[in-house]
Design brief:
Elements (H helix, E strand, L loop, with lengths): L2 H4 L3 H17 L7 H8 L3 H7 L3 H20 L10 H18 L1 H11 L10 H22 L9 H21 L5 H15 L4
Length: 200
């Protein structure tokens, strides 16, 4: 991001970012077009390069902004006390679904980011995202194990990886079956998850 972008009014920033998110939500990185973003934002194409060095710089800025918004949406959950791992995990998934319902463009954008696996310019974003999420949940699981809320015989990293893929599976299912009620499906999915972990 260049200083020129920071100097824009809040309204102009909002219009530009909405246009950029929409473009990358509709297309993967390779197919997304700076010209269409500029046209949608009603600015000259050259103006985009006065805001950001290149498409990659803009893309990573958007990822940072979208992830921050999603993290802010669920941050209050981690402040709640006396919550076991399963209840915490259920609340996280419920809040994720709510965020996705309220922010469909950001949801589609973040989904596209998670599918970027073999782009030479970006690297394997799918792998990076998976690793970051696994490390996040691994730390949380270790904290729960220290409180004897999760069996200490379970490997924290393995369970974390399972949890991350479990959550990704929910999003994948709802993308394939868009008519499914998200909250009802989440309840059914979590019931199976609870039984699989033998949580009473």
């Amino acid at each position: 991001m260049k200083p020129t972008f920071e100097k824009l009014s809040t309204q102009k920033k909002t219009i530009f970012l909405e246009s950029a998110f929409q473009e990358f939500a509709l297309y993967d990185y390779a197919q997304a077009n700076i010209g269409r973003i500029a046209q949608s934002a009603q600015i000259a194409k050259g103006s985009v390069y006065q805001y950001f060095e290149d498409k990659k710089s803009l893309y990573f800025y958007l990822i940072q902004q979208a992830q921050q918004k999603k993290q802010q949406a669920i941050s209050h959950i981690f402040q709640e006390k006396n919550d076991d791992f399963f209840n915490l995990f259920e609340k996280i998934n419920q809040q994720n679904l709510l965020f996705d319902e309220q922010n469909p463009v950001l949801q589609k954008f973040l989904y596209n980011v998670s599918q970027e696996r073999h782009n030479e310019e970006l690297g394997n974003l799918h792998e990076k995202t998976l690793k970051q999420s696994t490390l996040f949940f691994q730390k949380m699981i270790a904290q729960q194990q220290a409180k004897n809320l999760i069996d200490t015989n379970i490997d924290a990293q393995t369970l974390a990886f399972f949890v991350v893929n479990h959550s990704a599976g929910i999003a994948e299912f709802l993308k394939i079956f868009p008519n499914e009620n998200p909250q009802i499906f989440l309840k059914k999915w979590l019931t199976l998850f609870e039984k699989a972990l033998c949580i009473s």
